[in-house]
Each structure stands twice: as C-alpha cells, then as structure tokens.
Amino acid sequence: MEYKVSSQLMYNAEEPGTLVLNIRALQGDNESLVIEPGTITYLDYRSDMDRLLVLPVVEPGEVSISYSSVVKSQFDFIDFSGLSPQPVSELNPAILLYLHPSRYCQSDKLTRMASRLFGKIDNEFEKVLAITEWIYQHVEYLSGSTNGETTACDTIVQMAGVCRDFAHLGIAFCRALDIPARYCSGYAFDLSPQDFHACFEAYLSGYWIMFDATKLAPLNGFVRIAMGRDAADTAVCNLFGKIYGSSIVVNSELISGTMDPVFNTMNSSVGISYR
Amino acid sequence: MEYKVSSQLMYNAEEPGTLVLNIRALQGDNESLVIEPGTITYLDYRSDMDRLLVLPVVEPGEVSISYSSVVKSQFDFIDFSGLSPQPVSELNPAILLYLHPSRYCQSDKLTRMASRLFGKIDNEFEKVLAITEWIYQHVEYLSGSTNGETTACDTIVQMAGVCRDFAHLGIAFCRALDIPARYCSGYAFDLSPQDFHACFEAYLSGYWIMFDATKLAPLNGFVRIAMGRDAADTAVCNLFGKIYGSSIVVNSELISGTMDPVFNTMNSSVGISYR
Amino acid sequence: MEYKVSSQLMYNAEEPGTLVLNIRALQGDNESLVIEPGTITYLDYRSDMDRLLVLPVVEPGEVSISYSSVVKSQFDFIDFSGLSPQPVSELNPAILLYLHPSRYCQSDKLTRMASRLFGKIDNEFEKVLAITEWIYQHVEYLSGSTNGETTACDTIVQMAGVCRDFAHLGIAFCRALDIPARYCSGYAFDLSPQDFHACFEAYLSGYWIMFDATKLAPLNGFVRIAMGRDAADTAVCNLFGKIYGSSIVVNSELISGTMDPVFNTMNSSVGISYR
Amino acid sequence: MEYKVSSQLMYNAEEPGTLVLNIRALQGDNESLVIEPGTITYLDYRSDMDRLLVLPVVEPGEVSISYSSVVKSQFDFIDFSGLSPQPVSELNPAILLYLHPSRYCQSDKLTRMASRLFGKIDNEFEKVLAITEWIYQHVEYLSGSTNGETTACDTIVQMAGVCRDFAHLGIAFCRALDIPARYCSGYAFDLSPQDFHACFEAYLSGYWIMFDATKLAPLNGFVRIAMGRDAADTAVCNLFGKIYGSSIVVNSELISGTMDPVFNTMNSSVGISYR
C-alpha cells in the first residue's frame, strides 16, 4: 500500500524565535516541503526515531509550512501464539530505557494496578491486547477533555481523553509490567476527522508491535512520524519564543493498493510490526 | 587528580529475576568487579551515557556486587563572562530532547515561575547559577523527606529533599527557560556521609556544565556514572522480579594529585565541564 | 448490645503546646478519663459531630491519656427496597455541605468515573452498596501503604490503602453522584488487630446509613467517635507544638447482649442507621 | 456606608434538576428577588455562614434570577499592635475546624514552606499581612489561568490565578501556621470589571479579620455573601442535573456615605473585622 500524507501548518510569530517541527514521515519518499516566507533556511535532522525540521524565524509575521510525501507502508504480521515472554535479562540493553517512567507515563505508580488487572495473562501479546481493550472500554474518547499536562494517572481518574492520553496509559501499563513501550505519532488513514494521530508500540519478543486503544484508525494504515518515550518527545511542534499556532490541516489517502483494515481485537494473536 | 571509587551492594533474591546496575564509572580504569555467587554471568553494556551491568539471577539467595575503579578526573574550566546565550536554532538537534519535560522534571509546569524568578538574567551561566542558588536557599536537605515518586513540583511545595530532588528542580527550571539540562549520577569526593550523589548538567554555549545545588560536595571531585533525563534513567539499580536491596556501601578517595574544592557560588563566571 | 471501649495514648512533648483529642464515644456513658500529669486541665467540647478534648501542655514531658466508656449501641435497620432516591431539592439544606468535595475526597474529579461505574443503578442504597463492593474488590487493604496526604484519587491509582482510604473513596464516589456522604471514626468490635476504625455514612432517604468497604468489622459493632467531611475533621489527635505520639492502644469488647455480625453484602436491601 | 448590590444570572435547563444559589448578601436588607419562570417555588435557607436559595427546576428551559439588596456595611477596625497570638488551647473549639486542610487548601502540605517564609514573625496580624503581601508579589492575577480543580499547591507552582486562588493560598498558609482561616465570597465595590469576588478571613485574637491578596478591591467595600472552608462551600451556584450557566451580571454601588478605600499594606497594624 502507498499513502499520500500531507500537512499544512500556520504559525504567527510575534517576535523572532524557533520552530522545531516533527511532521515528516519517517520513511517518506517523494517529499515536498514548502515554507513561507522563503527566506527561512531550515535545518533538517534525522535520527532513528524522528526527522526534525528546525526553523529559525528571524522576523515577526506569519509562517506557513506545507508538507507532503508518498509513503510505502511496510510492516510485518507477527504471530505470537505460543511465544513466551522475553526476560528482561535477554533484552538488548539499549531497549531498557523504554521501561523507565516518563513525563506522562508514570509507570512507577501503576505497578499494583497493572499487576492486578493484567498480571495473570501469560502471553505477552495477549497481555498488551488486554491493556488496549481495558483502555478502550474504560476511557471515553472526548476531544478537549485533557490538556498538555494530563498524565496516564490523570486519565485513569478522569476516564476520558484523546489519542495521546490513550497511548500514554497503554505505555504506562506496559512499563509497569516490565514490557518496554514507546509512543508513536503519525498520519492515520481513515481517521475521521483527519488529524495527527498517536499510538503506542510495545516491544515483544524482539519486535516493536503497534497498538491503538482508540480503535479510531486501522493499525495497518498508520504512517509513522516519530517515536519517543511519550508525547514530550514527539510534539508536532515545539515553539521557542512568542510564536503561536493558528491552524493545522492534515490528510492521509491511499493512492495504491487495497487495504483490509486491522484493529486490535481480543482473541487475536497476530500483531503488526512496522519496519 | 585520580580517585579510587568503590561500591559494595547486596541484594536478596526471593525468586529468579534480573538486576540492572548502573554503578560503573563512565571513564573507569583499572576496574575490579566481583559478583557473588560467581555463577552469575553478567552482560556489560556501554553507551555514551552510561555503563550498565545486566545480571540475570537464576537462583534465589543473596547477591553481592563489589566494584572499584581508579578514575582520572578530566574536566575543563569554561569562562562564561561575555558569552551570549546560544539560540535554540543553533543547538545540535540531538540535544533538543534535553529540553523536554520528563518524569520528575515537569518543566512544562514551571515556565511562568522560572521566567519570573530567573528570566531577566541575560548571561546563561549566571542564570543557571541563580537557579542553583535559589534551590540551595529554598530547599532544605533532609534525608528521608522524599521518595521515588517525588517530582520537581513537589519539591517546590515541600521545600525539602535530597540530592536527587535538588537536581530535578535545577533541571526543570533550566528546561523551562529553554536551556537543555540533564541528570548526572556519580561518586562524590568529600561527600559526608559517603553515598552515590546526583548533580545536574546544563548545556551552555556548547558545553555540558556541572551544577550542584546541594553544595555538599566539590564540583571538581565528581566521578560520573551516568547521565540521563532524570533519576528514572540513572537508577543505581533497577530490579525485575522479587529482589530487594539490603545494603549499599560507597566510597571515593583521592589517590593522586591535590584538589582545591570548587562549589557553585554567585558572582563566579567559570563553570566546570567534564570530558 | 453494650460495648466497653477504651484507648490509651502516649505523647512526648518537647515543648509546651496543645493536644486536641477526638477519642470519646459520641454517646459514651460511664466514662473514665485519666490524664497524666494530673496538672493538665483539659477543656471538654461537645458538638453534634464530635466530642473534643483540648489539652494545654504547659511543660515538656510525657503525657498519657487513658479513656474508657460503656456504650449502648443504638441503631435502626432501614429497608430500602422500593424507596426512590430523594431529589437534591428535597434535602435539608444543612445537609448540602456533605455534597461538597473535601481535602481527601475530590468528588469533583470523579463525576465521570462514578457515573460510568454506578450511574445506572436506580435504587440509591444499591448504588452505595455497589460503590462499597467495588472498593472492596479493587483496593487492597495494606497497612502502611498510604500516608496523611493520600486522597481518594490516589487510592484509585494505587489500588491499596487502609480504612481511612477506603472511606474517603466511598465518600468521594457518593458525592460525585449527588449523594451526601460523611466520614465516621470510631471503635470497632471484632476488628483485628484492634485500632481506631473508619467508615462512611451516606445520606439516603433521610437516614445516615453506615457503610464499610473494608468489611473488616461488623457494621453493627461500631461505636462512633466523630463524624466529619473526611479524616481532616476527625483526627484522633491534632498536635500543636513539638509534641509527638509514642503509642496507641485501643480496645472494644461486647459486655452485654449478643451480636449477629452484619457486613455490607450485595443484594441486601437493609442498611444500618446509628441514632 | 450603604451599598446596593445586585446580580442577574441565567441558566439553561436541558432537563429537570436543582439549582442551589449562594448570591444573597448575608446581611441584606430591602431585598428584591425575581425568578423566572415564576412557577419555580424556591426554598430559602439561612445559616450563620450563608443564605442558600434552593430552586427545583421542574421543566426544561431558561431560568433567570434577578437579585438586589441594600446593605449597610458594618465592620470594626481592630488594632493589633502589641496583641500577642492566641494559643490554640484558648480558641473556641468550634473554631478549630478552620485549622483543618480542605479541598483547595492543603495546609498539611505547606507547613515547612509557611514556617520558613513567615514563621519568624511574632505578631499574628503582621504574619497574615506578610502572607498576603507574598501572594500579591508572587502570584499573577490572570483570568482563565486556573479552573475548578486548582488548589493552593498548584497556585504556588503556577504562580498565577484569580481571586479564588489567591484566597485559597492565603487560607492554606494561615492554617499551616495554626491560624484559623476561612473563605469569604461577596460583592466588591470598585472591583473592575464587576464580578463576584473572594477574600479570606483569618481568626486573630478573637476576631475574623478580612484579607485580600489580590488588592483589587477595597477591604471596606466588601459585602459578604458566604463564608466557608474554601470555594467548595461557597459556590455561587451548585447545579444538579443537566443545567448550564449562560450569563452572570454583578454590580455593587455605593448609595450613601463616603468611603476611604482600605487595602492590605505592610506596616499597617489595623485590620477590618466584619460584624
């Protein structure tokens, strides 16, 4: 499958400053990037986890960014039936940091809850599926119900949130159960209304497997932008100086291939791992 | 200067599990490491930021780790008088993540406070010195006053904490002012009583500069073990399974050279940057 | 039934100060109160809700309080089958304040959770029973797991607590559902080990009905000391000045009558209302 | 001085429910109250602390309340120079509950901070003045910066708030220093823009003394509506059922006498105590 993803963002700079954008598809191809005013000379930075655009804004005024890319979606189906959990001692130590609590995922506070709710499930994939289902059943998707300070623990109490909050809670439960987990932002096919989306990935038997507790978009229609510990690492935009966002338009469309949408469902044993 | 640093740690394993230790000097030399029982075959992992020991514990029982190393202390004095702040747009993008809030350093909640208290100081080194002095003046060093869930915001309200809390608050204020900052654990010469210590490093004009708001040990007597976003990344030990710590003995002694102790003081313009 | 309840409390005063004790049975009879040193002249204060002893401690030293009373247990069984909920507009306005959130019972944060978990139950007694059962099933009774700052929202996340935390959560859920609720401290027959105990009362169809989500002591063996919005109002002791508690011994024994222990159980429609 | 105070409130009821209003002047005279639709038969409730209107809303639709009153302002100036603090043991025990922490005033968390900032001031009036001044200096008055969950501890960290938050912080500091304190809502002369206002009262040497850390309205132009532990007790309106506020208009004007505005200032020793 091939997707055409695009985003147009507008900012108002009251004074000079810097925009750090995190909107490029991690494996984007045929990319187009138009920044206005054209005098802005941006810096392009690529890591394993993200592709940042650093834009120094020298003069006050409006800044507009228009990005599009064609992305070939590449992932594997991994069957976890019969796979046993990987002990922490056999993990690649570079993965261990995805067990640490982070700003929005206070896994250290959730060990008892995670253990009581999900501790008895042996198969790790089923365990994370159960987490995903629990969140889907207990948390109401409600635009505007949370803000940039809302944490996984807040979401448990409030029982409402948006994709970001669903992902944070999934990550926090996983880490509390000694399963590495990370946040993943991206473009999502068939998400309505179109917007940037967030999921989480759990590290199971050597694969990063994608989970989406919102069930609002198919797992196999995701185009990844960035991975990180939580939303703090993958913000669409970090603003330095008096610069304010004014509008965002996001789109994702299938341009070749057909897609048979896959969602997290109980009793499945097959996960999706993006390459 | 050369330091001999050492630590002896004891754990009780009620069941098989894994210990991940973060106790080796980052630039240790002449290292000795004795683990008992000797049947434990550990994995050694080195990154830019830390050196992990991953110990699978196969049988219940006592585990003891005895480590020592001789470390040549290497750092530079950087004079910041007259240096202007580095704009975010000129930072190496790999450094940007040290501007993100983390588990214990909710810099996103502290922008107004940091700006009101320290925002008017132009020189960035002086700004971080002022942060360090504020913490020193306002927070009481009180063993046992905090726990593993205590955050920078908690410390502002409680006005008490230990080295870890002092460092978290320093980091949070720096990030709230768009200054990258990270946590640093290590051995500390002349710290009484001897224990693992924690400081923070701020990224100023291209250098990671060490700050210690506790003023309990000289900045130039620090032997770094690990750097990370906060204490979540640099724990002396992460325990997986029913394994419990029973004792820790830590030591650091000067074995060659003389040291003229340096502490953070107002009106200084010289910082210490470890290599 | 008649109970003999007693408590012995010891305090160490490092300097002069004041002790405010809240240990007398609300309907105590045949009371004995011995305070040492005998020079302390206490003030006795009685309200509808509690009976305070205010003890000025003039000299440093040990203070011991020894209290006992014989209490005739008086309560009614109220059958709620078929009773409809009382609308807020028909409540005695003096009761309305038990709908307000308080220090440990942030009912304002729990409206969605309470509504989703219990909102569909029509009968109000069954609603509070369901709350009680939910707490009993989800929260682990674990001595020492919480402290004087722990709130109802914390307990939801931690899933552990002591009687005080069980009561706070019950109260918070009730208020979130527009059911007045208050905290109740007392002596509890058949509680093991013996200690002061806490329950909560919900105001249903004109009666304050007792609930105990810990199920650790029979509802009909409770001797009430104080009622209030939460533990902040009913502390066994408030200490002013450098005075520290050193020991507490509590006891409750049945001295006449027989008791057929009653606990909160699902499918019951009968509640206990103390006079 | 005589004030004419008035308020017009509009609500939209999507379904039947109950409004509990707390808008009447505590010592109102010549009162006018018009409620539409006129079919609503309200209940009037008066306590020492407030005067509630309980309005059952039987049918969906718009509800409007129009209130006005003429109030003779009655208060005394109390000179605290030379007055010593009243020990807790000499307080009327009925006042003790104003020492307890409450929903928005977690005084239990602020004992160290309050003691370090204000503990050395002997005169209690000066102590509360210093609290008031500290809040005025440190907290920015910023409409919309807080919400119904914001607590005194949040305000310390955020350094911004509205009158309600200023009052909560003042109350929390007082209680942390063993000074009884309560929240006070009312009409405020010369407040711009006109709105309901909030102050706090501290209990000093037998008098409830008014303090206003916002300094936005004169202390001697306040017409009290309600007192309580914090905003939870004195809400302008508590809504039960799907009823939503649509507009509020508030006014206060001087109709007889002249007023020489009094604000809290350092170095004053005279407080205002409303009768």
UniProtKB/TrEMBL annotation, chains A, B, C, D:
Transglutaminase-like domain location: 155-215
Short name of any one Pfam family annotated for the protein: Bact_transglu_N_2
InterPro entries: Bact_transglu_N_2, Papain-like_cys_pep_sf, Transglutaminase-like
Domain of life: Bacteria
UniProt-recorded name of the protein: Transglutaminase
